Amino acid sequence: MGSIDTPTITENGSTQLQAAAPSGGDHKPPASANGAQVEVSPEPEATKKRRSSMLPLEVGTRVMCRWRDGKYHPVKVIERRKMPYAVPYDYEYYVHYTEFNRRLDEWVKLEQLDLDSVETVVDEKVEDKVTSLKMTRHQKRKIDETHVEVGHEELDAASLREHEEFTKVKNIATIELGRYEIETWYFSPFPPEYNDSLKLYFCEFCLNFMKRKEQLQRHMRKCDLKHPPGDEIYRSGTLSMFEVDGKKNKVYGQNLCYLAKLFLDHKTLYYDVDLFLFYVLCECDDRGCHMVGYFSKEKHSEESYNLACILTLPPYQRKGYGKFLIAFSYELSKKEGKVGTPERPLSDLGLLSYRGYWTRVLLDILKKHKGNISIKELSDMTAIKAEDILTTLQSLELIQYRKGQHVICADPKVLDRHLKAAGRGGLEVDVSKLIWTPYKEQS
Ligand code: ACO
Ligand code: ZN
Predict the structure, then answer these.
(1) What residues does the MYST-type HAT domain cover (predicted)?
(2) Where exactly are the structural domains of the chain?
(3) Cα of 202 to ligand 2 centre, how many Å?
């Protein structure tokens, strides 16, 4: 399967690129910018003048930018800042690569931009926004107030723009968590006293975060947690799952939300974690249980959501943990005797993971099943909501609409082909190791 690019992770000082760079960028860079030894005739005075008249570039400008793959890609300037001790036009620019996900947005230097490609029409909406940078009451309420996570689909176009404006520049660039240093992906609304920190240090067990390494070292000497707070509801080999009640462990729940938001874009963070349960997946060794990922789940969902947010921490991604967490959420739904669906919208990576999981689970059943089977029966067997079954089978072109009814057409050869394309199965959930009863409000 192909790869979607994500930022980098460092362990013991060595940096690894997590996924292959996307292709693209047949734009020809200026001779001086690609490092090639070519003889360049002096720049005509007129060109120089034209270029410097553009500087500093306006927010909203579209231009080509040299990325870490050495190629030029179209970007939009999101923000700019003057460099300390700089000559008048020396600015850094925060850019969004318009072909890629927002997690790859970054600060770049002027020399990475090809000024000959500048499109002079500045995006008006961005300009409007820049003049009203301060937080609106609406945003403030959303951040200060309580409750659940809301997806973008519930936001109207104006609120969506506000969200993008308020979260446009990543605030924390890296975090240290356990033995990893991880580049962050998105903005997360940490309390104001962390505004001036580019890096935060997390205790990997209680998830408290600090501005300085020495503070973390002092904390680690005192912190007596060696696993997430709450009940261990699953253990198989070195894998454990803990259920954390947001009401009983408020600070942990809030810390987890701050941390998770660094890797989740389309979610608005709220601080009242009372209404959620957190299922934290850990790899355990003699030093303790190290968080690998988690999902959150509303205690009561009117929309039959069985999962609100899901995250595998970047160092652990693409190893099957995401599908394990998804499978786990459906095992809980089966125990509750309910069908479930993830909260929308799904991110690009979330959608890929769910599509892969749904495809594998449904096609495995269809392969083994003799005779007709209905969507309702599939839903009862898997706890996957009927709509998700329908869209999955439709996207695989396994559904026909005959005489007012959806009919599943499952040719074994076609099923095998789809199963092969759906990627690996992920880590299995051994249901016999799950010791859990559904949540009941204690009076
Ligand atoms: N490039 C291409 N395909 C990918 C990538 C990638 N970078 N990452 C995941 N996939 C696809 C693949 O099909 C993969 O299966 P394969 O490896 O067998 O080909 C499948 O998704 C899942 O792979 P897993 O290893 O099981 O999942 P992972 O542990 O990487 O976790 C997750 C997936 C949770 C979505 C992770 O990417 C993540 O945490 N992303 C950031 C947060 C996020 O976007 N969460 C979902 C938001 S939606 C919501 O919360 C309801
Ligand atoms: Zn701690």
Answers:
(1) 167-438
(2) 58-119+160-169, 170-345, 348-423
(3) 8
Write out the E strands in 299-411.
Answer: 305-307, 310-312, 341-342, 399-402, 405-408
354 neighbors 396 (Cβ within 8 angstroms): no
Q: Cβ-count burial of 237 within 10 angstroms (0-12 exposed, 13-18 middle, 19+ buried)?
A: exposed
Name the residue with the closest Cα to ligand 1, atom 22.
Answer: 353
Residues pairing with 434 in the sheet: 234
Among 279, 316, 352, the mutation site with the greatest number of ligand 1 atoms within 8 A of its Cβ is 352
409: left (phi over 0), alpha (psi -120 to 50) or beta: beta
pLDDT one-digit tens code per residue, 132-190: 333 333 333 333 332 223 344 445 677 667 767 777 889 999 999 999 999 999 999 99
Please indicate whether the domains covering 58-119+160-169 and 170-345 agree at the CATH topology level. no
Instruction: Give tens-digit pLDDT for 143-156.
Output: 333 222 334 444 56
In one-letter notation, the amino acid at residue 375 is: I
If you take atom 7 of ligand 1, which residue's CA is the nearest one?
4
Q: Distance, CA 205 to ligand 1 centroid (Å)?
A: 24
Q: For residue 114, list its beta bridge partners.
A: 64
Residues ≥6 apart with Cβ < 8 Å to 55: 89, 91, 110
- Class of CATH domain 58-119+160-169: mainly beta
Beta strand pairing status for 209-210 and 199-202? Answer: antiparallel
How far does residue 353's CA lie from ligand 1's centre (Å)? 5
CATH 1.10.10.10 fits 348-423, yes or no: yes
In one-letter notation, the amino acid at residue 260 is A
292 CB burial (10 A radius; 0-12, 13-18, 19+): buried
Identify whether 111 is a catalytic site residue. no
The CA distance from 341 to 387, in Å, is 9
Set 303, 343, 387, 441: catalytic member: 343
Of 443, 188, 194, 432, give the one whose Cα is nearest residue 311.
188
Find the ligand nearest to 102 CA. Answer: 1
- With the most atoms of ligand 1 within 8 angstroms of its CB, the residue from 267, 317, 324, 341 to mutate is 317
Ligand 2 centroid distance, CA of 430 (Å): 30
Residue 322 CB–ligand 1 contact under 6 Å: yes
**pTM of the full structure:** 0.84
